[in-house]
Design brief:
CATH superfamily of the largest domain: Type I PLP-dependent aspartate aminotransferase-like (Major domain)
Helix content: 25-40%
CATH class of the largest domain: Alpha Beta
CATH topology of the largest domain: Aspartate Aminotransferase, domain 2
CATH architecture of the largest domain: 3-Layer(aba) Sandwich
Number of strands: 12
Number of helices: 16
Oligomer: single chain
Radius of gyration: 26 Å
Distance between the termini: 16 Å
Structural class: alpha/beta
Order of helices and strands: HHHHHEHEHEHEHEHEHEEEHEHEEHHH
Strand content: 5-15%
Number of domains: 3
């Protein structure tokens, strides 16, 4: 493949002797192994040879990285219908608030002296408690999966405080996010799978015989990973509580529930929220994230230390304090979690207000159902019902073309759209999960629908064009198996 100049690696643009910087004399001599340097640093700290770094002028470096950045895809550059990830637009006022010097320049070791920061923390945990129907939240966990682990550890601490140490099992639906069984395993708990009904919801009849005095909790996502509302949760919660276990809510799909329904009102005892999904933080590439954990009344003391509390003195003066509890599960993060994400989340909540938040869920649901209904003639819809924020096709309706879900996803890149989640959930062979979120305009949705129909038409009339896609990206069609089995993670000079 012929590479354009700035599609090359920075090492490929390197030329001996070129540089884009001029540093002042450090007073340690000019040679790489001068005695002055050895005396100042110690001979053991000096390199035996120069590091193998690229040598390029400043203009080449600037152009290289700016051009490379245009190859990145994000919510600010195009439609990102990535199911179960809620990659929605992040208002820039949130970034401005998170970068405020009073937040960004504050060192966490200041502790209780940072009253403004602690007040922000306290206000956010109270807002989340109201939104989730919980008594108290901790913002300490760094991510959604970290929140799951923290929630399950909270549940273990609760059972152990009662001397009920035989509860070592967690029931997880077969449609669950992969982090659910993984978090349970990391928490030292045994995973028990409960099956789904043909309509995609949890099979209550399959659940009943699984419940006994060894079950610590049941984890559920609502809407579930198929984008379907779990209408039997009151009965499920009754059965689980009757067995002495707790209900855990995976908040990954909270987006369509905002202002419509609260997990605490459904019977959940512990939940986590992905601030970086539902409450607006850019989280591509693995971070940043935040996974606050909320609990119903009576479980607050088991949340991890430290906790932020509001104290009113006799003279009416309000202060915010850091406290700990001996019954707590311990500490799950340094300081108080990912503070910048928390600042963004509170800015998002306060900007929208209660009325704005109550519009988010219905709009996300409307957008998802609009796309689903427009595309079901060309794509196989395994469950014909109203969805919430996302839905799942089982690939193309016409299976005779030889075009797979992976081919469709790669062809979308040629049209300027990010691919949806593919081959998950595992309930269907050619799963293609689409989540438009509430922030997309009707024009964007219509263009996406038009492109999806065009790809289906190509699959019927010229399948090779889809199978060999993408054609318009810097790297066209890599061998996926070879890339996975023999990845090239370093640049090797010819």
């Amino acid at each position: 493949m012929n590479k354009k100049l700035y599609d090359k690696l920075i090492f490929e643009l390197s030329h001996p002797g070129r540089k884009g910087y001029s540093l002042p004399d450090n007073g340690l001599g000019d040679t790489a192994h001068g005695t002055d340097k050895a005396a100042a640093l110690g001979a053991s700290l000096l390199r035996s040879e120069k590091p193998d770094l690229p040598e390029a002028d400043e203009l080449t470096v600037v152009r290289h990285y700016n051009n490379m950045s245009t190859n990145n895809f994000g919510v600010d550059t195009g439609f990102y219908p990535l199911g179960s990830c809620t990659m929605k637009y992040n208002p820039k006022i949130n970034e401005e608030m998170a970068s405020h010097p009073g937040f960004a320049s504050m060192h966490p070791a200041v502790g209780q002296a940072a009253q403004g920061n602690l007040e922000m923390y306290w206000n956010l945990q109270n807002a989340l408690s109201e939104i989730g129907g919980m008594s108290e939240f901790t913002l300490n966990p760094f991510a959604g999966a970290h929140g799951e682990l923290t929630g399950l550890m909270t549940i273990r601490a609760y059972h152990e405080s009662r001397g009920d140490t035989k509860r070592c099992k967690v029931i997880v639906p077969d449609s669950a996010h992969g982090t659910n069984p993984a978090s349970a395993a990391v928490a030292g708990l045994e995973v028990v799978e409960v099956k789904s009904r043909p309509d995609g919801t949890v099979d209550v009849d399959d659940l009943r015989p699984l419940l006994d005095d060894t079950v610590a909790a049941m984890m559920m996502t609502n809407p579930n990973t198929l984008g379907l509302f779990e209408k039997n949760i009151p009965e499920i919660a009754r059965l689980v509580h009757q067995a002495g276990a707790l209900m855990y809510y995976d908040g990954a799909n909270l987006n369509p529930m905002l202002g419509v329904a609260r997990p605490g009102d459904m019977g959940f005892d512990v939940m986590h929220i992905n601030l970086h999904k539902t409450f607006s933080t850019p989280h591509g590439g693995g971070g940043p994230g935040s996974g606050p954990v909320g609990v119903r009344k009576g479980l607050e003391q088991f949340l991890p230390n430290p906790r932020v509390i509001r104290h009113t003195a006799a003279d009416g003066k309000v202060t915010f304090r850091l406290t700990g509890d001996g019954k707590a599960l311990g500490q799950v993060s340094a300081w108080l979690g990912n503070f910048a994400v928390q600042a963004r989340a509170l800015a998002y909540i306060l900007s929208l207000g209660s009325e704005g938040l109550m519009e988010a869920g219905p709009l996300a649901t409307l957008n998802a159902n609009y796309i689903k209904e427009q595309l079901k003639d060309d794509y196989l819809l395994p469950i014909e019902t109203v969805c919430k924020h996302e839905f799942v096709f089982d690939g193309l309706k016409d299976k005779s073309t030889g075009v797979t879900t992976l081919n469709v996803a790669k062809r979308l890149l040629d049209y300027g759209f990010h691919a949806p989640t593919i081959y998950f959930p595992l309930l269907f062979h050619e799963s293609l999960m689409i989540e438009p979120t509430e922030t997309e305009s009707p024009e964007t949705l219509d263009r996406f629908i038009e492109v999806m129909h065009a790809i289906a038409r190509e699959a019927r009339e010229n399948p090779e064009a889809v199978i060999s896609a993408p054609h318009e990206t810097p790297i066209s069609h890599p061998d996926d198996t070879e890339a996975a089995l023999n990845p090239k993670t370093t640049y090797i000079k010819d």
